[in-house]
Amino acid sequence: MPARRVSLALVCVAGAAIYLPTARSTFVQDDRAIVAANPRAHSVSRALRAFDEPYWPTPSGGEYYRPLTILSYAVDWTLSGGRAGWLHLMNALWHGLASLLVVLVFERWLSPAAAVAGGLIFALHPVHVEAVAGLVGRAEVLAAAGMLGALLCARRGWWVATVACAAAAMLSKEHGVATGVLIVFDRWLRPTDEPRYPAGLYAALGGVTAAFVVAWYLIGHRATSDVAPVFLGAGTGQRLVIALPAVLRAAGLLGWPVDLSADYGPQVIPAYSAISLAALGGTVVVGAAVATGWWARRAAPALSFGAWASAATYLPTSNLAFPSGIVLAERNLYLPVLLVAALTGVAVQWVQGRWGGAAPRGIGIVTAALAVALGWRTLSRLPVWRDNRTFLLTLLTEHPESYRGHWSAAAVLAGLGDTAGARREYAGADSLFHGDPHLDATHALFLLGLRDTAGARPLVERARQRVAYEPIALRAQVLLLLLRGQRAGATALADTARIRAPWDASWYDVQLR
Fold first, then answer.
1. Per-residue three-class SS string for 147-181
2. Are 388 and 25 in contact (CB under 8 A)?
3. Do 40 and 70 contact (CB within 8 A), yes or no?
4. CA torsion 422→427→428→433, rounded to 10°?
5. Whole-prediction pTM value?
6. What are the C-alpha distances in Å from 418 to residues 445, 457, 459?
7. 384 C-beta neighbours (distance < 10 Å), count
8. How far is CA 241 from CA 135, 228, 230, 267, 337, in A?
């Protein structure tokens, strides 16, 4: 027992300690809107009163429903006085806990050494950097902890705790709805002579899941229209032609996490218009995940669980069943790392079974070497998330083909008053991908600030053709009409915009005074 406790502590501490350098980090990218500038994330009482409000503040989108994640920020903000370093450290601790839970899940099928090896790989895998080093990634970590916690509680017959953990997972991030699926997988992989879970558990899980889905739709329903620009206007076939290469890239990141990126938009992952080798590769990955889950269910149940749990938790953002707001993001691979962890654990157990007493030393050396390699890559990636400047410069250096990188650079240069530089970066972003209505709208607003109506007009028209009521495009068109002396048209459009985007009503009032 003492040795087991030491091993569990090792995994937990490793998962948390590797992220201690993030204590020097600030609020980066979406952290600013979700945490730093969000009053709900600054007060526990305000967060509790906001349990019926969307995750993203309304002016930024009013999308999704993750009240428990917001509440966790509020607790940390209250305890630390709003220090970013404290919030980052709490992310690290949550990741350490999730890594510990992975070991506990694997212990049912693997030897202690194999389960710990799998847990270490999960704790140190570099693809976790975006989820743990970025504060908004906490939603992934909390959801993972809730899902794994629910599974472990079900194994012990703690039915109320099971449902509570499942609800916590869902309230942290919407893919927590897969909790019931994971519990079914886990039960299916257990010996048939063990007692079945009570029907009431499944009924309670189904009821909680249904209630969450209803709440999610009523409160954060605008997320249903949050579609990545590359999928706008695409049918099912065209969507799969784009999504399957992203699945292949995701599998590559799990197995060989060297070329990491904060953006996987068009050009970083080519937006194919027809079937490609990459799409065929993605199809093979999907088939392999399903087949592995079935083939290994008796000989290596840990691997079976890892394969199917990874598939179930990645599916909602994979764009295979329906389009989502992103093509690929490393933070969404947080739980799919279970596949790599399970594969490592199964390999260790196989070596133990084959070589018996002669194996432990060699296993320890190989596992330690792999852990060191993964840990080094994780540590080398952490500085990217230190601040916005480092984040942007790294993105532009590593992936100059990222249109989002040039778009962000244009916004920074415009804020600094470098209009020539901003024009250049906007043009660069447009040359890399001209199908993003949000880019067109912000570019048009920038040009209208320079009173360049000729340059802004086609951008506004293109943005509204892609998304008819894109809020920023509506603002830009109202300004365009005012600059061209068409006040009546601007007033009529503003009336429509106030209905479509009521949070912008005061802005339109100011412009039309």
1. HHHHHHHHHCCCHHHHHHHHHHHHHHCHHHHHHHH
2. no
3. yes
4. 130
5. 0.94
6. 15, 22, 21
7. 23
8. 32, 14, 11, 14, 24
Number of Cβ within 10 Å of residue 211's Cβ equals 12
CA pair distance 456, 479, nearest whole angstrom: 10
Q: Which residue has the tokens 């093509």?
A: 327
Nearest by Cα to 212 from 261, 244, 172, 240: 172
Please give the Cα distance from 398 to 308 (Å, whole number).
Answer: 33
Closest of 466, 408, 469 to residue 435, by C-alpha: 466
Partners of 8 in the β-ladder: none
In the structure encoding, which two tokens stand for residue 405, read together? Answer: 């990188």
User: Domain segments of the chain: what residues?
Assistant: 2-222+238-328+338-385, 399-511
DSSP state of 234: -
Looking at this protein, which amino acid is placed at residue 168?
A
Q: Give me the count of residues in the chain.
A: 513
> How far out from the chain centre does Cα 350 lie?
33
Question: Is the separation of the CB atoms in 426 and 446 below 8 Å?
Answer: yes
Residues in CB range of 436: below 8 A, 6 or more apart:
229, 403
CB 412 within 8 A of CB 392: yes
Query: Per-residue confidence of the chain (513 residues) as pLDDT tens digits?
Result: 578 899 999 999 999 999 999 999 999 999 999 999 999 999 999 999 999 999 988 655 568 999 999 999 999 999 999 999 999 999 999 999 999 999 999 999 999 999 999 999 999 999 999 999 999 999 999 999 999 999 999 999 999 999 999 999 999 999 999 999 999 999 999 877 788 999 999 999 999 999 999 999 999 877 667 899 999 989 999 999 999 999 999 999 999 999 999 999 999 999 998 999 999 999 999 999 999 999 999 999 999 999 999 999 999 999 999 999 999 999 999 999 999 999 999 999 998 887 765 566 677 788 889 999 999 999 999 999 999 999 999 999 999 999 999 999 999 999 999 999 999 999 999 999 989 999 999 999 999 999 999 999 999 999 999 999 989 999 999 999 999 999 999 999 999 999 988 889 999 999 998
At the fourth CATH level, which superfamily is domain 399-511?
A: Tetratricopeptide repeat domain (1.25.40.10)
CB 108 within 8 A of CB 143: no
| Eight-state DSSP code of residue 109 | T
Question: Which residues neighbour 110 within 8 Å (Cβ) at sequence distance 6 or greater?
Answer: 118, 302, 345, 346, 348, 349
**Per-residue tokens: 190:** 């257990």
Whether 406 and 429 have beta carbons less than 8 Å apart is answered as yes
- Look up residue 219 and give its two tokens: 């409160």
Q: 56 and 63 in contact (C-beta within 8 Å)?
A: yes
Q: Who's near 41: CB < 8 A, 6+ residues apart? A: 34, 35, 47, 70, 73, 74, 77
What CA–CA distance (Å, rounded) separates 58 from 100? 36
